[in-house]
Amino acid sequence: MTELLLDIQDLCVNFSIYEGVLKVLNNVKIKVRNGEKVGLIGEAGCGKTTTVKTIVRILPVPPAIISNGKILFEGKDTLKMNTKDLNTIRRKEISIIFQDPIAALNPVFKVGTILGDVIKCSSLEKGEELSKEEIKKKSIAVLKEVALPDPERLLKNYPCQLSGGMRQRVCIALALACAGKLLIADEPDTNLDVTIKDQVLRLIKNLVDEMNTSIILISHGLGAVKGLVDRVYTMYAGTIVETAPTHDLFSDPLHPYTRGLIKSVPKLTGGGIPEGIPGRLPNYINPPVGCRFAPRCERAMPICLKSSPTLVDVSNEHEVACFLYGE
Q1: Domains and CATH numbers, the chain
Q2: Is pTM beyond 0.70 here?
Q3: Per-residue DSSP letters for 22-90?
Q4: pLDDT tens sequence across 117-127
């Protein structure tokens, strides 16, 4: 079996707000092997972004409170690392494509300055000292890779001078410029039109294949997840409810929530309006005592309202947290 690169164990994250404490992540477990492509799916607000931000500790603390768990990256717990070791991992080993390009790019610096600083810091961590000309050439090269026209001119622009899609591609270029052992892509196809979206997803796939880089892909586009990753985790209300190899999960989803997600996707063949999932995410201040999906589940049983199910191995690395399975 391929060696584990990332191992998230029983991660619990709360947020302290005026109304009380939001109990968002609840015993999250995620494993990523070397060179593996992993997808993380679930509706908006279920905790996907909170999970990946916690990996490199960029959640604001407070209001965030990491109450329990371990995040082992190559066997070392990032939650216990000092600032120096953590910065080394951020610059050299883990890169992130953020979901919101407006918040990710500093508006007072030009694109060339932002990209150049990232390339310079990443190179120094790898023991390389690049000249200004080499940094500029590499900046132009990565902008070309994400299909941005006239990259030399774009280096002189401020983020506010670019469209939303162009800003998103700059964010992708930033991540690709210092890609190490793990690439976290938090909805990288946001604000992109259909043709560019396909190009960018293909680019990311080629990168991780060529460099043997692992990836965690967060996306609401189940088609993108199905075509890119090897294994998928389904998250609901801060809990992992199912994980399986991609083909197994889409061909035979076991958890009622995963089934609902897949049925919610419109089909190219038509067939009427896709089915949705009734109800909404629970209140994180006072989440359900048992299974967090039970209030919305058509197959809920009395035990679902009292106890929280744990992941059980059904077959071929297909695990599901549901009382319909196991003993």
Answers
A1: 4-93+180-320 (3.40.50.300)
A2: yes
A3: EEEEEEEEEEEETT-EEEEE--TTSSHHHHHHHHTT-S-TTTEEEEEEEEEETTEEGGG--HHHHHHHH
A4: 888 887 776 67
